[in-house]
Amino acid sequence: MVDQPLLPLKYGVDYSKLDPFKLIAQKAADTTNSNAERLGHKFMPESRGESAAVFEEEDRYSVKVIEGLGTKNAIADLLKMADGSEHYRAIARCLLATAVNDGVSLGADIYFVALVINAGGNEWFTDLERAQEFCSGIAEVCNEIGATWGGGESQTLTEVVFPKSSVHNIAVEGEIKPKSNYTLLRKIEPGDQIVILPSNGIQTNYLTACRDLIPRLPKGLSTMVEFDGRTYGEALLSPSYIYQVVVRDLNHNNLAPVYMSHLTGHGLIKVMRSTAEVGYVIEDLPEIDRNPDQGVAIFKFIKDWGQLSNEEAYSKMNMGCGFALIVRKEKLAETLKICTKHFPRSWHAGYVTNGPKRVELKSIGVTFFEDALQIR
Fold first, then answer.
1. What is the mean pLDDT of residues 234-241?
2. Phi-psi region of 146 (alpha: psi -120 to 50; beta: other; left: phi over 0)
3. Are 237 and 298 in contact (CB under 8 A)?
4. What is the bridge-based pairing of β-strands 358-361 and 278-282?
5. 225 vs 67, 81, 220, CA distance in Å?
């Protein structure tokens, strides 16, 4: 364990710099809202700044998302160079999770997937073992959630992407039917309850900082993670959970949540992604420091070796929390029953209270206020 202060970990995404660009993009995009009306579709302006774009059609809403993955791929490549192990089936699942979980958070059932691969050279496509694992992984997830893989684009970007490296993008489309399952039709109110579904490790955020930690470790990616039983590299590449089946099951049982949030970038701050001026009190969090199990050991490892404060760790990593549901109090018991059927480690985490807008993590004494999440 480190015994002296080190330089802060480097982040690939600095949201204090990225979010202002997003605000400019949203303002410009607002000028295009009415264009789809020529085809009989209506863009839902309240979805601007949410995790997916929503269009109203006659008997349903359509939902569209595009996401990407880069640094996690690079870690998979480093492991293959080190020991020959192949991890691109996990990468496929992680890539799909970035977009599917975002669409699902608004109540969508995803049915279409398209893939874009940006490679640093033609040789990336010649590794047939990797190709088989990756493509099989994409198809496996599609069959699992009931989506059709409709094609995509393969690009060779010499002198743009590093040689032997790749950046992947995924686009998905889904529908919300009946329309009443659209979460943004509902209002979050004090007294609503917070249910959290577990993550399977880091998911798809914070990987640049995780890579920056590698040279500080005794054996780099091969360093064993205490309480986990795997190496650091293996733990980083845990395939992300996909929450489509849970939301589909809730919708089919008339238990559509009031609001949902996919907890990736911004960590636990993302619980307050909604525009509602309320507070979110989280009373129960995974035992990261006192009693870590395999599900959260990687977070303790990174927190300790990176010398992260609670404020930094819980605002950058999901810390074992994968997906947050806001539900009416009278539907809590039935919601938990369905969530634990699919993810046994799901739990009742807290409740919604009056403003000011904030996420209060009571068990560790940390509170994040509205200014920590400037995405609109």
1. 94
2. left
3. no
4. parallel
5. 29, 20, 11
pLDDT at residue 375 tops 70: no
Query: Which ranges of the chain does DSSP label H, i.e. alpha helix?
Result: 15-30, 71-83, 88-104, 128-145, 207-213, 232-236, 244-252, 297-305, 310-316, 332-342
Decide if 234 contacts 202 (C-beta within 8 A). Answer: no
**pTM greater than the 0.85 cutoff:** yes
The answer to whether residues 282 and 268 touch, using CB atoms and an 8 Å cutoff, is: yes
In this model, does residue 161 exceed pLDDT 90?
no
Cβ proximity of 270 and 282 under 8 Å: no
State the residue for tokens 């249910």. 195
Predicted pLDDT of residue 17:
74
State the chain's maximal CA–CA distance in angstroms: 64
Give every CB contact of residue 34 below 8 A, 6+ residues apart in sequence. 43
- 254 in the Ramachandran plot: left (φ > 0), alpha (ψ -120 to 50) or beta? left
Write the DSSP assignment of 71-131 as a string of letters.
HHHHHHHHHHHHH----HHHHHHHHHHHHHHHHHTTT-EEEEEEEEEEESSGGGGG-HHHH
pLDDT, tens digit, 9 for 90 and up, residues 52-69:
999 999 999 999 999 988
Please tell me the predicted confidence (pLDDT) of residue 311. Answer: 94
Nearest Cα residue to 158 out of 134, 187, 125? 125
Cα(210)–Cα(134) distance, integer angstroms? 22
| C-alpha span between 126 and 139 (Å, rounded) | 20
- Please say whether the beta carbons of 93 and 237 come within 8 A: no
The answer to whether the Cα torsion of 115, 116, 119, 123 is positive or negative is positive
